[in-house]
Amino acid sequence: MERGKKLPVGIENFEKIRTEDFYYVDKTSMIRELLNNWGEVNLFTRPRRFGKSLNMSMLKCFFEYGCNERIFEGLEIAGEQELCRKYMGQFPVISISLKDVGFKSYPAAREMLCSIIGNEALRFSFLLESETLSKGEREQYKQLAAVGEGGGPAFVMTEEVLAGSLLTLSKLLCRHYGKKVILLLDEYDVPLDKAQQGGYYDEMLDLIRKLFSRVLKSNENLYFAVLTGCLRISKESVFTGLNNLKEHSIADVRYDDQFGFSDREVRALLTYYGLEDRYETVRDWYDGYRFGKAEVYCPWDVISYDDLLCSDSTAEPKAFWLNTSGNDIIRKFIRTAGPKTKRELEQLMDGGTVTKKINQEMTYRYLYLDTDHLWSLLFLTGYLTRRGDAAGGFCQMAIPNREIRTIFAEQIMEWFEQETGKDFVISL
To answer: Model's pTM, two decimal places?
Structure first.
């Protein structure tokens, strides 16, 4: 089969996708939605692998000074001429991802956080020569970019400098440009997830709380901020006193089609590669998620499966999520399951639904303490999805598709056999 554009398997850099001839599913209408439905601090919670990082990269490319306007040609946002004139390439942008802040100890995780913020600060090295900044402000910048010597940590921020680093950088950029800053924080909750697993949760929580509070609360240098993550962390007061937060979860209608592929988008992709005959298979394996009122596919899986097919027309679908760290959720869920849960799992595997109260304000400290928390976690991380309309905080949940059903089957078959002493036949 002759191929056209390359498939962006594992690529989360918007500019690279647009300049190196990769296939792109247009999500630029998200820019219009953000500007027309104003929120000073916007939090998007979605399962992993649903395009959060690529959308954040797209926002950075659009708003940041020096924007390459050509990479937006032909996309939906380009039709908003007045909006593009007013906002495209008009802001200093701080953009960091916290997905790599996860180690076995607090010092190692802290060092990585310093490195991520320090390297972002180095993008603005012109601040050292800025005549707009005072000598004291240039010294503040030096503290963000200071590196160690003799094989020590790459960046050597003190606790106080690190806690105020994003606030400081936003202040300096605002002073230099005379324009408020846009802040993009991708995978904001990963450090807390990894800290809970590593046994240094309280230390990391205290640091993240200070970092976010200073840059997001009453920051006069901030135009707006966008955060992404899997969970809404509130009980530990990560967002204490933050009255300007607008939360957009998988239950919300607004932005419901901005993460994940719609059926129309998947049909277009398959048609482009001459794979229309595989539509039913792709839908069976990777469709079935419901965000707001939108039915969506997992984009990572669709692109990975299509890439597999393009190289081997006889290839069969597979569960791309298998053997990922997220499957630990299912394992822990099974270990805490009682007789009622066992029956509910059988019901799900038979294609049925279960009704549970969903807590969308989870806390990593208590995620695995009981089965009720794990039901919510399975829902929020994409292993279960909503069917029907939610009411009173309760939700009808089902396994979304064949891929996730395969994952459940692999994890629970052995458990059923051990616990019940009988064979449990699962037909996929």
So the answer is: 0.91
